Amino acid sequence: MPRIQTRTLNTYYEMAGDGVPVLVLSGTGGDLRKKPTVLDSPLTADFNVISYDQRGLGQSEKPQDGYTMAAYAEDAAALMDALEIESAHVLGISFGGMVAQEFALAYPNRLKRLALFCTSPGGSGGISYPLHELEHLDLENRAKTMLLLGDTRIDDDVIKTNPELVKVTMARLDRSEFAHEDGHARGISGQLSARKAHDCWARLEHITCPVWLAGGRFDGIALPQSMENMAARLPDASLKFYDGGHLFMVQTRAVYTDLAGFFHSTLAGGAS
């Protein structure tokens, strides 16, 4: 799949489907080599879905510096410029939702509608769990901790009686396959630092496009209360919770039907 040199970064991206473009901003550690991705979702039946590896991750360039939310947002705008996309719907997932907030503030004319999945505003509005604090753990213990955080219905007994669940999570979190790549560790560290510093809370009222927030009722990473705070502060927002955790969009595939409806403007902004 293609790479493209933008004004900020040599960027690896993939796209699928036809129609109005949807730019996807992925979560912490996002790497398009790790499947499945949003490109494998039903969203591609209605839209031209574009996803890319953010700076320092996957097959995109891993610069020495520039790991700030403002830089991540500019990378998104630069990719749109390079692909000659004037405006698009934007879907931000977890860390990508943080970047999407910055993007909406910096480039309000570049997005049509904004969807924010399992994310937080930062500041007094609520922060997502500080994942940088888990970096010292070995893979197995990091996987177990992520399971407990990612879905609060899971406890130690569930983990003990479901070893396969731990193995699947370890495979999802395992970075060893790509650890030899130049700049890999720098990119991971840079993203976690940017995530830690994220704070759009005081500026959310300036995001005036329609926004749809979606999250899992049992998410212990991006807390439901934080998403409720965001929905209340954004001028034109709706919010829906699903029976799931941080990966609710994997657990409940109907999410993408609702998302398509929002992008098709059949779901209006405003509280729901």
Structure description:
With 272 residues, the protein is of the alpha/beta class. The protein has a single domain, classed as Alpha/Beta hydrolase fold, catalytic domain (Rossmann fold, 3-Layer(aba) Sandwich), CATH 3.40.50.1820. The chain is built from nine helices and eight strands. It has an eight-stranded mixed β-sheet, sandwiched between helices. Helix 1 crosses helix 2 and helix 3 crosses helix 5. The longest helix is centred in the N-terminal third of the chain and has 14 residues. The relative contact order is 0.15.
Give a topology summary.
Layout: E1 3-5, E2 10-16, E3 21-25, E4 48-52, H1 69-82, E5 88-93, H2 95-106, E6 111-117, H3 139-150, H4 156-161, H5 163-173, H6 184-197, E7 211-216, H7 224-233, E8 237-242, H8 248-251, H9 255-263
Parallel strand pairs: 3-4, 3-5, 5-6, 6-7, 7-8
Antiparallel strand pairs: 1-2, 2-4
Keywords:
272 residues, alpha/beta, Rossmann fold, eight-stranded mixed sheet, 9 helices, 8 strands, globular, disordered C terminus
Which segments are poorly predicted (pLDDT under 50) over 5 or more consecutive residues?
267-272
Helices and strands, in order, run as EEEEHEHEHHHHEHEHH
Q: What is the strand content?
A: 15-25%
Q: Report the CATH C-level class.
A: Alpha Beta
Cα-to-Cα separation, first versus last residue: 39 Å
CATH level-two architecture: 3-Layer(aba) Sandwich
Report mean pLDDT, rounded to a whole number: 95
Strand order of the largest sheet: 1-2-4-3-5-6-7-8
Structural class: alpha/beta
* Biggest sheet details: 8 strands, mixed
In DSSP terms (H or I, runs of 4 or more residues), the helix count works out at 9
Going by CATH, the homologous superfamily would be Alpha/Beta hydrolase fold, catalytic domain
Briefly note the CATH topology name. Answer: Rossmann fold
Based on CA inertia axes, which overall geometry fits?
A: globular
Tally of domains: 1
DSSP summary, beta strand count: 8
Our Rg estimate from Cα atoms comes to: 17 Å
Helix content: 25-40%
